[in-house]
Design brief:
By secondary structure, the chain is α/β, with parallel strands linked by helices. The protein has 20 helices and 27 strands. The strands form 4 sheets. Strands 14, 18, 19, 20, 21, 23, 24, 25, 26 and 27 form a 10-stranded mixed sheet that branches. Strands 10, 11, 12, 13, 15, 16, 17 and 22 form an 8-stranded mixed sheet that branches. It starts with 10 loop residues before the first helix and ends with a helix.
């Protein structure tokens, strides 16, 4: 291997490349226009979280004078510089894309207007909206000797205003004030149009306030009004060992999050120089300055896409998830899975069977107990209502609520309190570990004793994200899996020591060890001259020990195909090291989220579902699960799913040895093959697995 090339890619720089792939979807003219606008919004939302957590973490390391290099060879200061350059380059590209999308929307009769460009009638309507809705809500905050600089909240939009008293000369520095754009009001405001007009026009809330800024500063002359936005360090820093009450400690930390150190300041490119100097001094920020050529925070494009009426040709065709065939004839979920295991593939198949499963258990007089983990739950969760109903019916209901699910902490605290009030036993995770395993257990009294029914998932128990993420759910009454599930719940809620699992592998104590052993087994087969093959699908791969083991397997002759949507620190194609490894990433309509691992095992194929990505935090700092699929039919079905992804030549990108991703090259006579479109044909690939395979 050349001395100039590291065997590893940096995790954060790899993430930037992932977000660039999302941006490419906003640029892809094959995608419907309003869907491109949504991808543009996702780029902004992704970048917000990245800045407030990952970049903020690098910033903290620099403040602590840390100089140690990561395993990819980057020091904190060197990484900071590269991250700033690459993210700023991406933001510039993002806004070029924004302007292109706006031009295309204009051709379709959809406009984002400036107030000055509106007709007299429209201006009057917007003036009424301002006076009746906006003006009573906003608060101008002056900055002078008696009024200190106000607290600027993270990721909120503000206006910086410079002004002078009427008749005052411009020899002295201007006065300064800020106004928070109220996030409780819609950012995009529809402009009333004539009944016979086909145009749909919108105006941004900050532009409305700017147009009427004089109403807030009577007797003063406005010199400039400039939008700005601050991003603070939003990562939680918990002293879990010293916390007497984890719920109370997280609530305190959420309040402290509002005061995190600034890491990014976004301003429009024509920002007033005096106002900018005031912000930089007051917020103590210099290097994290982003000059933006357009409206700040393009996440509003998500709402705008939904507000545009009609124009169905500018959206993906509506897709309704199929209710799984296995439950169509027999509505009793437990009766079906008592006879056979069932695999659910979301979002192509509905999440409703999971809701139905819990509701049936809640209403069944023979069900004695329901236990589940809860990581991210939707706002109107049917599952939570079912658990409340079950507790009221006298069943033993135990819910492990992970309070430390990033940016869902407040939501989960609310659910936890609500469930406790309903009579459920609520466990707030474990000290030092996040509970990320997706597990649901129903214990039922039957003729020959107690029987366990289990759901194991790769995604959260969230009916909303189940419509947007590709995930797998296994429903089973297998005795071995049931026994391990009971043991795992007892281990988390009580004082049980880790057991010798019959089916499961559980992080942080044994999941990584099991994976390493399974890879070692393929290495042994390869060295014995046998066919050896691994296929692994996950969101991220960044743990060095796992990467090194895959390199060892590659050097032994094991064929390794990786499907990794996001971060990948493994560098494929290094001669003599990783030339038997290929990596693809698929970014498409749905977020690829399932974790599936396949081992050829000398033709005795094994397939596992998992909640864990191969990252250090998942393998060593969380409670995660690796669950085998025993049913040969379902095993075969999962292999088909993996092969669908590997055959993608439309939305797949291939990771090259230089760390860059390139679209799969379509052979001259090859037909376009888009794996998510193929997966929508649920009845076909579920009904004829052998022929599809």
């Amino acid at each position: 291997m050349s001395k100039q090339i590291s065997a590893y890619l940096n995790r954060d720089l790899s993430w930037v490349e992932f977000n660039r792939r999302v941006l490419q979807e906003a640029q892809d003219h094959r995608n419907p226009l309003l869907e491109r606008a949504k991808f543009l919004a996702i780029v902004s939302s992704n970048l917000d979280e990245f800045m407030s957590v990952r970049v903020a973490g690098v910033h903290e390391q620099i403040r602590a004078n840390l100089t140690k290099m990561d395993f990819a060879g980057y020091s904190p200061s060197g990484l900071w510089k590269r991250l700033q350059k690459r993210t700023k380059d991406m933001v510039s590209e993002q806004y070029r894309t924004y302007r292109e999308i706006i031009k295309c929307l204009n051709k379709e009769g959809v406009f984002i207007r400036e107030y000055a460009d509106l007709t007299i009638t429209a201006q009057r309507a917007i003036a009424d909206y301002y006076n009746e809705i906006v003006f009573p809500v906003i608060t101008p905050m002056a900055v002078d000797q008696s009024r200190p600089f106000p607290h600027v909240h993270t990721k909120e939009l503000y206006l910086a205003v410079t002004l002078r008293m009427e008749g005052e000369g411009d020899t002295d520095e201007p006065l300064f004030a800020i106004i928070q754009i109220p996030s409780i009001l819609p950012r995009c405001v529809p402009i009333p149009s004539r009944s016979n007009s086909k145009k749909q026009e919108f105006i941004l809330l900050e532009d409305i306030i700017t147009a009427f800024i004089d109403s807030l500063f009577a007797g003063y002359t406005i010199e400039s009004v400039c939008p700005f936005r601050l991003t603070r360090n939003s990562d939680l820093s918990l002293d879990e060992e010293g916390a007497e009450d984890l719920l109370e400690e997280i609530e305190k930390e959420l309040r402290r999050r509002k005061w995190g150190i600034p890491v990014r300041l976004e301003v429009e490119s024509d920002f007033d120089s005096y106002a900018l100097q005031v912000l930089k001094e007051e917020l103590e920020i210099e290097e994290g300055l982003y000059m933006i050529d357009g409206p700040l925070d393009l996440s509003f494009m998500m709402k705008l896409s939904g507000m545009v009426k009609g124009h169905d040709q500018l959206r993906y065709k509506k897709f309704e998830p199929t209710y799984p065939l296995e439950f169509e004839e027999e509505k009793d979920i437990m009766s079906v899975i008592a006879q056979r295991d069932v695999l659910l593939h979301h979002p192509y198949e509905s999440f409703e069977p999971v809701n139905d499963f819990v509701w049936q258990a809640a209403k069944d007089p023979d069900v004695l107990a329901i236990k589940m983990t809860m990581y991210r739950v939707s706002g109107q969760s049917s599952l939570v209502k079912a658990l409340e109903y079950a507790a009221a019916a006298g069943k033993q209901v135990t819910v492990i609520v992970e309070l430390k699910a990033r940016f869902d902490e407040e939501n989960n605290i609310a659910w936890a309190k609500r469930l406790e009030k309903a009579g459920c036993h609520v466990v707030y995770g474990l000290v030092g570990l996040k509970i990320h395993a997706k597990l649901l257990l129903v214990v039922r009294r039957e003729k020959y004793g107690l029987k366990r029914y289990v759901h194991v998932g790769t995604g959260n128990y969230n009916e909303n994200t189940a419509k947007l993420y590709t995930d797998i759910g296994l429903m089973t009454s297998n005795d071995v899996i049931g026994s391990d599930t009971s043991a795992l719940f007892n281990e988390v809620t009580g004082y049980s020591v880790p057991r010798d699992w019959e089916a499961f592998a559980v992080a942080p104590t044994g999941l990584k060890t099991r994976l390493l052993k399974l890879i070692d087994r393929e290495i042994e087969h390869a060295r014995a001259g046998k066919v050896a093959k691994i296929i692994a699908k996950m969101n991220s791969l960044s743990n060095q020990e796992m990467i090194d083991k895959l390199y060892e397997a590659s050097m032994a002759g094991v064929s390794i195909e990786l499907i990794i949507r996001g971060v990948c620190c493994l560098r494929p194609g290094i001669p003599g090291i990783s030339d038997n490894i290929s990596v693809i990433s698929i970014v498409d309509r749905y977020l690829e989220h399932s974790r599936i691992v396949y081992f050829y095992n000398d033709s005795k194929e094994e397939v596992y579902l998992s909640s864990a990505d191969w990252m250090t935090r998942n393998l060593e700092k969380r409670v995660e699960l690796l669950c085998p699929v025993f049913d040969s039919e379902l095993k075969n079905l999962l292999i088909v799913m993996l092969q669908l992804n590997l055959a993608d030549n439309v939305k797949a990108r291939v990771l090259k040895v230089n760390g860059q991703y390139e679209r799969v090259t379509l052979e001259e006579e090859a037909m376009p093959y888009r794996s998510q479109f193929e997966a929508q044909l649920v009845e076909r690939w579920k009904g004829s697995k052998e022929s599809v395979r």
